[in-house]
Amino acid sequence: MKRYLFSILIASIVTGNWMPSAIANSDCTVPMPELFHRVSPSVVSISALTLDPFKITSRVSLALGSGFIVNDEGLVLTNSHVVFGCQAIFVTLDDGSKTEAKLLGADPIFDLAVLRIPHPPEGHIAITLGDSDSVRIGEDVIAIGNPFGLEQTLSRGIVSGLNRIVPGSPLLTLPFIQTDASINPGNSGGPLMNRCGEVIGINTSILAEAQNIGFAIPINVAKHILPELVKHGRVIRPWLGISGKLVKKELMNIINLPLVDGFLIETVDPGSPAQQAGVQGGGLPLTIAGMEFLLGGDILTEINGQTLNDPDNFLEAIGSLKVGDKVSLTLFRSRETRNVELTLSERPILPGDIRSSSSSTVLPMKGGF
Fold it and tell me: Is 7 in the active site?
């Protein structure tokens, strides 16, 4: 899991030393009521107001979510879909006190955001951040949040799966932690914790048609991008502007079309460096063994001379890209190979990145790279 995460976190980010350290393992056997009493003051309720200027009536909508205090200066971590694009954000502490919060940074791609509130009152300490790379299937976990506005609600379960690439997620996804702890609308942004009281994930989505299948963003992802959110207000990513999937030339034997090993480009983002360089997406939809393809576009076989014949090579190649880099692409189409050069720009926020705050099942991370 660690190798995968470092491959997709394109920008090199240095974590600060302000993160709380792990607590002793001897605390991992405390009774559940005592554990809740200890960690619940670090969990907050979030309400965010959005004004739609294009509506005549019902212009104001309210989003409810959760979050948790991550340092003594009042930084609060939550989901981006809870607060992104909102005109006013309020945080309610466990003692009932309410304060306005400032959005410091948000990343709709990883669905993470960081808020700042005034210095937390005495007793509202920073929560302890754990290590999501050490999580094992079967571990006991608890989720604390505000489902449907019911503040300070605890649910209990286990880690039921790891490295889950949620169905429907596109290329640049991250592996989620799966849990059967009850997660509902309003839990979004709240902590998923182990029995030591350490946060191992940020609760973010569920499968609506399933029974108790929820997903949490690994806390190590947040550790890496949090400093950049605070410093820049966003995560700076390079943008090529393509989406698709890796294919093998063996597919040619099934569909009787000329193919090579590489990344099948299915769509090209309008205005992207790829579009400006003449890269072409597909136009022929085809489903093979339940997997959907959009054929007819270019197949990207090399990036800067590095072949894309397996997932490891692909992740290594895109993980080395930076904003402003001049990139050479080798493309295959209609039995011909050609080379194009382009300069990577910063990836903008695309329409598919934005997740609705009213839905617990819409997945983050729309778009390619």
Answer: no
Q: Could you tell me if residue 209 is inside a domain?
A: yes
Q: Is 80 within 8 Å of 74 (Cβ atoms)?
A: no
Mark whether 154 and 48 lie in a shared domain. yes
Select which of 107, 111, 180, 353 is catalytic: 111
- Specify the CATH number for the domain of residue 37: 2.40.10.120
Which domain does 263 fall in, by range? Answer: 238-346
Q: What is the total residue count of the chain?
A: 369
Return the ∠ at Cα 292 (arms to 287 and 293), rounded to 5°: 95
Report the b/e string of 230-247 with b at 16+ CB within 10 A: beeebbebbbbbbbbebb
- Which of 188, 215, 232 marks a domain boundary? 232
CA 20, CA 224: separation in Å to the nearest integer? Answer: 14
**Which one from 188, 205, 357, 360 is the annotated catalytic residue?**
188
8 Å CB contact between 327 and 321: yes
- DSSP H stretches of helix in 215-347: 219-232, 251-255, 273-276, 311-319
Could you tell me which of 43, 69, 6, 233 has the C-alpha nearest to residue 145? 43
Catalytic residue among 81, 160, 357, 360: 81
pLDDT in tens, 213-239: 999 999 999 999 999 999 999 999 898
* Whether residue 198 is found in the same domain as residue 137: yes
> Are residues 107 and 216 located together in one domain of the fold?
yes
Is position 360 within any domain? no
Examine the residue annotation and report whether 111 is marked as an active-site residue of this protein: yes
CA distances from 18 to 79, 120, 354 (A): 21, 16, 30
Q: Which two tokens stand for residue 287?
A: 């489903």
Residue 242 and residue 269: Cα distance in Å, rounded? 6
Q: Does 209 share its domain with 244?
A: no
What are the tens digits of pLDDT across the range 328-361?
A: 999 998 888 999 999 999 888 776 666 655 444 4
Tell me which of 232, 261, 288 is where a domain ends: 232
Is 26 a catalytic site residue? no
Query: Is 194 in contact with 28 (CB distance < 8 Å)?
Result: yes
